[in-house]
Every structure is written in structure tokens, then in C-alpha cells.
Write a structure and sequence with these properties.
The protein is built from 18 helices and 16 strands. By secondary structure, it is of the alpha/beta class.
Length: 476
């Protein structure tokens, strides 16, 4: 049966390359190709390297689909349509930890090296061309592959520098978290923004002279030259596919060297410092396990304030996929490394400030969807989070409850922990605020707010007597 055009949604982030466009039809992800892109796809699917990368799950699974599934961008129908596997949760590079961005970079370079070996290249170098299956990166931009032309450099090099290499160097060499820098501009960090930070002896740090200062000098020298003129100059200078491959391997070697041993973080030792008794911890774990498992198996669970991932792992035993959100990049990086070593494919750790979550960005503010627009969870875990938002960040309790409800799918459940005002953690936070600033921060007020937004199905006061857990079906 043909699908009505009204059921087809174009992907807002897929407009920059007119040769192909991504669409959503229900749960399906489809890509329309123009005649040249369709020809490239036929050559790509007939290669040796591409099917091997798909089989290794390094590139998203892709197959031919009926061209009638998506409408034409203009009056001319698409020459071909592809069907891609759906990634469980779309994230952005500024939500990744250092090790995540580095691993994504290494995968991109591995794929590019394999492609060059069979006469292909990638025309993009953006970090946004990768996503995650849990702790495993996967390349998703099939439309980026095209035949390589002798004597031409990697077209994606500048994008790779701005969205991958420069952020990694910023953190590895200067100890500065790259996430706010990447979030600020959808095109990444410009060389001119970074150069003042790498003067003097810092110019000699790995990769800085070649990929920052010399790269910028080349950009300035060729600022008025056309792309054709630059290509002709490179061919005349003897630039070859072998030199291109050597350049890519050199970048890969550099990326592998970049590392940062993160500083100690208060949250990195959360389980020892959080103040839960053994009885509290056992009771809390049992409540969470039952709450997540209740009803239909969740497709997506959000664990807000995941810390070391203890409850994310618990939820993963009862759900298809878990997104573990934590503000501290150090904690997320450690969690990612652990999940990677375990081969975990169903827990995705992300760096996110709950009081300042990722907004929409790029063209018209929708090219990169905000966190709330991507998060439609069957279960939301908000354990030991409410007091940090309501007291620590001065977010009114009604706003906190409304926000939690907004992250759930229709009929979704929120499993939330309310820390009483007399709890030691709440007392510590309140001590730093003016007296009487939070008169409505009370258990009865919180329960009333929950009941107004949904149906409280279960509650448990922990043995300590200063914390209560609730399972609430929102809208129920």
C-alpha cells in the first residue's frame, strides 16, 4: 500500500546536501537519492568494504526500498530510496564525553581509510554523522560516500577539524571541557577561535601547528581561490591518493594520542558519599526494578542524574534502551569507559545539565533538535534529582513536575525520589540559601503536584525516613 505524503516527515537536519534527503515514515528512516547519488549507492553497495562495515555494525544497516515511499523534493521523483535502521536515541556531539568523541572520530577515520582503499571517500567530516548503539559508535550518513577523485584532498577535513579535532585538542591540551564550545555553534569551533589559546609553547603540542595554525594559514592563502583552482594547485604539486591516505592515517595517529586524565569529581565517588544506608539502597533498588518492569516493557528509559549508572544498569534489565544523563563530563566519561569495556549496547551515557538542557540549534532552531523534543520516554527515572533542581537551582516545584511529565510519552511513568527538607542533603543545600526562600518545598506539596499531573500508583518511604519514592503514570 502506498504511503500518504501526509505521513512523511522530512528530517530537519538533512537539507544541506541536495543530492539526498532523509525522511521519517512512522518508525522507518528513509533516504531519497538523486540520479548521481543513486549511482554512487549502487557502486558502494557492490564494494567489498561497505558490506563488511555494515556486518561489523560500524555503519548503520541500509537496504533498497521502493522509490514511491517518499515524495520528490521537486517535480522529479527520487532515483532511488534507501531504508536505514533506526537509532534508538539521537544525540549530539556536545552531549558526548571526551572518550566518546574520540572513539567516534576513530571510527570515522577507520571508515574513511577503508573507503579510500577501494576508491571511495566521504564528502563530510562532521561529528554529527555518527550516532550510538549504547557504548558503540555507528556511522549513519550513507549519502556522504562518493568516488574519490585523484589529486583532491579530503573534502570533509575542515568539518572534521571544527567538530572533532579542535574539541579534542581543547580538552586534551588545555583541560577545558569542549561541550559548551560545540553547543554554541552547529558548525563547530573555528580555527580563529582557538588559535589565541595555542600561542607560544602551546603551538608545539601534538597536532596544533599542522591542523590549527598551518590549516588556518592555508585557508587565508586560498580565501579568494575557487575550489577548482585549489584542486588544480594540489594536482600540480603531486598530491595523490597515496598522500591522502597517509594524511588520514596521520590524523588517526594523532587522535589516538589525545587523552585527558580527568580531575577528581565529587560525583565520581557518589555511591560512597551519597549518604544512603545499606537498607535504603536495597529498598530503593527493589522499588526501581519493580517500577520499571510494571506494565508493558519500556522501549526507552531516561535516567536523569545517572551518576555511576547503577540504576541505568538496573533499568536496562527491564527495558529495550536506557539514556543515562549526567551533568559532570568526568562522571559520564568514566561510565562510558565502563560500558564500553562491558560491550554494553543498551545504555547510552550523555553529558547534560538538567537545569540547562540542550536547546534546539542550527537553521531555524530545529536542525538539531533540543533534548526535550527527542525525549519521549516510557519511563523517566528522577532519583535524587528534584532537590538539586528545586533548591540547588531555584526551579519551582511545579516547574520540575511539569518538566518531568513533558519528558514522558503518552501514558508514560515517572519514578521520582523526593528528598525531605530534613534530609541531610536537603539541609546542606538549604543552608546556602536565604531563610524562608522555599516554603513550598514539602512532601505534601510535591504529592499534590504529582497527583495533579497523573496517577500515583506506588510510593515507598525509605527506612531512613527522610526520602520517599513514587511511581506516577502521567496523564493517568
Amino acid at each position: 500500500m502506498a504511503i500518504s505524503p501526509t505521513e512523511v516527515r522530512s528530517e530537519p537536519a538533512s537539507f544541506r546536501d541536495p543530492a539526498n534527503r532523509v525522511f521519517h515514515v512512522g518508525d522507518e528512516v528513509l533516504r531519497g537519492l538523486d540520479p548521481q547519488a543513486a549511482e554512487h549507492w549502487r557502486a558502494l553497495s557492490g564494494s567489498t568494504f561497505f558490506p563488511a562495515l555494515v556486518a561489523a555494525q560500524k555503519v548503520c544497516a541500509t537496504e533498497d526500498a521502493p522509490p514511491t515511499l517518499v515524495p520528490a523534493a521537486t517535480g522529479t521523483p527520487w532515483a532511488a530510496v534507501l531504508r536505514h535502521e533506526r537509532i534508538p536515541f539521537v544525540s549530539h556531539p556536545y552531549e558526548w564525553s571526551f572518550s566518546m568523541l574520540r572513539d567516534a572520530a576513530l571510527l570515522h577515520l577507520e571508515i574513511l581509510t577503508a573507503a579510500l582503499g577501494e576508491g571511495f571517500t566521504t564528502k563530510d567530516g562532521s561529528a554529527y554523522n555518527l550516532q550510538w548503539r549504547g557504548a558503540q559508535p555507528v556511522f549513519i550518513d550513507i549519502g556522504s560516500f562518493e568516488p574519490v577523485r585523484d589529486g583532491e584532498p579530503w573534502a570533509g577535513y575542515r568539518q572534521f577539524c571544527q567538530t572533532v579535532l579542535y574539541p579534542l585538542m581543547l580538552t586534551a591540551h588545555l583541560g577545558v571541557d569542549f561541550q559548551p564550545w560545540l553547543r554554541a555553534r552547529v558548525d563547530g569551533i573555528e580555527a580563529d577561535e582557538l588559535r589565541p589559546l595555542f600561542n607560544g609553547a602551546r603551538r608545539l603540542r601534538p597536532g596544533v601547528l599542522t591542523h590549527l595554525h598551518l590549516h588556518r594559514a592555508m585557508q587565508q592563502r586560498n580565501a579568494t581561490a575557487s575550489t577548482t583552482e585549489v584542486r588544480d594547485q594540489l594536482r600540480a604539486a603531486g598530491f595523490s591518493r597515496e598522500l591522502l591516505l597517509a594524511t588520514v592515517r596521520g590524523i588517526e595517529k594523532l587522535v589516538r594520542k589525545l587523552d585527558r586524565r580527568p580531575p577528581e569529581s565529587h560525583w565520581s565517588d557518589y555511591q560512597r558519599t551519597c549518604g544512603y544506608s545499606a537498607r535504603d539502597r536495597v529498598a530503593k533498588e527493589q522499588f526501581v526494578a519493580v517500577a520499571v518492569a510494571a506494565g508493558t516493557r519500556p522501549r526507552l528509559v531516561l535516567d536523569l542524574g545517572a551518576n555511576d549508572g547503577r540504576y541505568s544498569r538496573l533499568a536496562a534489565g527491564h527495558a529495550d534502551y536506557v539514556v543515562a544523563v549526567e551533568q559532570d563530563p568526568t562522571v559520564v566519561d568514566e561510565l562510558y569507559r565502563q560500558l564500553r569495556s562491558e560491550g554494553q549496547r543498551r545504555i547510552l551515557p550523555l553529558v547534560l545539565d538538567l537545569a540547562d538542557p540542550s536547546p534546539g540549534g542550527g537553521w531555524r532552531g530545529v536542525e538539531r533538535a533540543g533534548f526535550a523534543d527527542r525525549a519521549s520516554a516510557d519511563v523517566v527515572l528522577a532519583l535524587a534529582v528534584v532537590h538539586h533542581l528545586a533548591i540547588g537551582r531555584n526551579v519551582p516545584l511545579p516547574e520540575v513536575v511539569d518538566w518531568l511529565a513533558g519528558l514522558t510519552a503518552s501514558g508514560g511513568a515517572v519514578v521520582v525520589e523526593f528528598v525531605h527538607p530534613e534530609d541531610p542533603m536537603a539541609t546542606r543545600l538549604l543552608a546556602n540559601k536565604p531563610a524562608g526562600l522555599f516554603p513550598d518545598y514539602r512532601r505534601d506539596t510535591f504529592e499534590t503536584l504529582l497527583a495533579a499531573r497523573g496517577r500515583i500508583t506506588d510510593r515507598l518511604e525509605l527506612p531512613s525516613g527522610t526520602r520517599t519514592l513514587y511511581r506516577t503514570v502521567m496523564g493517568g
